[in-house]
Here is the input.
Amino acid sequence: MSWGFYKPYVTVGQRKQQALKKAKALEKQGYQLEPLGELKNRTKIATSFWGRSWCRHLESFSDYDNRLPRGRTYVRNGSILHLGITPGTITAMVQGSELYELTINIDPLPPKQWQAVKQACQGKIATLIELLQGKISDEIMTVVTDPTDGLFPKPKQIHFNCNCPDWADMCKHIAAVLYGVGARLDDSPELLFTLRGVDQNELISLDTTQQTITAGSRRSRRRTLSDDAVNNVFGIEVEAEETATPEPTPTVKKAAKKRAFPMAPAKRDKQAPDGATKIAVKKAVKKRALKKAPSVKAKKAAAQAPVLSATAQTETPPKRLSTFSPSAADIRKLRARLGLSRSAFAKAVGAPMPTINNWEAKLGKPILKPKYREALERLSQK
Here is the structure.
């Protein structure tokens, strides 16, 4: 084979500069890039439970063991300009000596296998947050990460294609992207379920949720995430609950009434030892009544005050809530029509980017907060 086939070696620094220039050029052309960024400061490519489990799963297969290390340098130095994950498909752009585009197709999780996973997890996962954070029992970890019957794909279920000149089945660009998926799961673990075409909410049973509510004192001692943390990290919408102030009991009202009003004059008269005290009490009661009576100036001001109309006295009608209810496909089409990246679209809507990812990954209509629904409706009218 001729040595002229190989292209000149490109250093890491040159490749990074080329990647930055190419990314800016693609964004100007309207491409919506989701770069992975540099990972050189990490001791491990993936740090979360789901990310590490994904990488360990791939490295456990002998077919991949000798090929995956070729992509570690690429994934660490920021050569992955784009890495998108949708149901059954991973699309990516990797900067090598040139910019290469590749696609990885992954078969959906077989229904019987998914049903077996759900049955094994039935009643054993308390909340969706614990599932996505990997805070689950060793028994459930063994089920979901099983190399044969778990959530991760087997080699025969992974099909990849890269337009680079390397004739190997798994080139270094493919290897870099497979490692990049593990790093992506650190920030968005729900994308694993999206990739396999299943809904992670099905692993959380209703019985378990009810048990969590009735657990009382035992559950109250556990640490919980704030609403903002859940929304920003996982895109889970948490509505604040209003707490009503309890009214005082009849006993309290009665006691308050006794304190607010003095003893009746008649009772004091009976206790008065002589007529002089009785006269003094009557004068005090009359003086108090005169103080409470409105003055002449107050009566005159009340007579001259304008009378409000019945319309003005009524409360302002509540603000009309938006009935705009887009589906996941409508949201994807709206973002594509506006030509916005997911991060720019999230900023326009006022929602975290993981929330946008959740909306677009849904099969039907996502549940939207009123403020997000109104923002989407405004954007759809542009």
Notes: Residues 3-213 form one domain. The two ends are 58 Å apart (CA to CA).
